[in-house]
Design goal:
Helices cover 26% and strands 25% of the residues. It has 303 residues and is of the alpha/beta class. The strands form 4 sheets. It has a 7-stranded mixed sheet, with helices on both faces.
Length: 303
């Protein structure tokens, strides 16, 4: 293994500030308890993080309302064309872990009836603000995705269920996807979701006095999560990585047919500022994100 003189630890997290990132592991956080985080720890940490950082996040991250975004620095649906057709007044869409619900607003402005769910009240406040500013109507729900059965959502009625980097906040997205498919997706409906690419759990290394560089990933089948420290009073915020085979089986095991799998590179330098999901901190690493994918997008449909 070559000696690295420089390295970059990837993070598909929205980097609200450099100081917010923390190079710690689960064992560092939980060494006193010798345990993995409970579901309640994960929910508490993620809710607190997004309630605390929502306003700053929306100041520093540019998310378009005239394109459907899938991940940082990559093309949106205006180029990728993965979305099903929207029939004004008839199409019904559900966004999971919506954040500011920019994708729901994009669909609503094209005539869809849009429902959106997020765990963070402050993120939903931003979504409501964007909806007012654009004159669109959204049906917003504050809830953990694990609690979808408790929400008043119309059964078997959604033509599209979508999530951009939202299912990554679940340690195991399979039960949520399965519930959504079996109870909410309409016959012939589409499930469209993007995840942090498993390579984002690695580290970019460059050898001393050599042009050779590449990614180092110690264990592909046991990928470390991204962590954000919330201080001493709250568990860390966590975002999880999954092997590609696991991501595909989330959908296959729920009874869906895989229609497309995409691993888009970052946009070329000349067009990079036009990405529908962009920040200055991501842009610094755009040359690396043109060599390896930052996300994987799955489009699946219910037969």
């Amino acid at each position: 293994m070559p000696t690295a003189v420089s390295s970059h630890s990837f993070s598909a997290w929205e980097q609200v500030s450099r100081s917010a990132a923390c190079s710690i592991t689960l064992s560092d956080i939980y060494e006193d308890r010798m345990m993995q985080p409970s579901q309640q720890d994960i929910l508490c940490g993620n809710r607190f993080y997004w309630d605390t950082h929502a306003e700053l996040y929306h100041q520093q991250i540019k998310i378009a309302l005239d394109d459907f975004h899938y991940g940082p620095l990559i093309p949106g649906d205006n180029e990728l064309k993965l979305l099903p057709s929207v029939i004004p007044g008839k199409s019904r869409c559900l966004e999971l872990a919506c954040g500011g619900a920019q994708n729901s607003i994009y669909l609503a402005r094209r005539g869809a009836t849009c429902f959106a769910v997020d765990i963070s009240a402050e993120q939903l406040n931003m979504a409501a603000q964007y909806a007012r500013e654009t004159g669109t109507e959204l049906k917003l729900f504050e809830s953990a995705l694990e609690n979808l059965p408790d929400l008043d959502l119309p059964a078997h009625s959604f033509d599209l269920i979508h999530s951009t980097f939202g299912l990554c906040f679940l340690q195991n997205p399979a039960p949520v996807i399965q519930y959504a498919v079996q109870n909410l997706l309409a016959p012939g409906g589409v499930f469209l979701a993007s995840f942090a690419h498993p390579l984002m759990a690695g580290e970019w290394l460059k050898q001393d006095d050599d042009e050779d560089e590449g990614i180092y990933l110690s264990d592909y089948f046991h990928l470390p999560p991204d962590l954000r420290h919330n201080g001493e009073d709250y568990p860390p915020a966590l975002s999880f990585h999954f092997p590609l085979s696991s991501i595909l089986h989330f959908f296959l095991d729920a009874g869906l047919h895989i229609d497309a799998v995409c691993e888009p590179p970052a946009l070329p330098e000349a067009a990079s500022n036009s990405a529908p999901y962009w920040s200055e901190s991501w842009q610094e690493y755009a040359p690396l994100y043109r060599k390896i994918p930052i996300c994987v997008i799955v489009k699946a449909s219910l037969p």
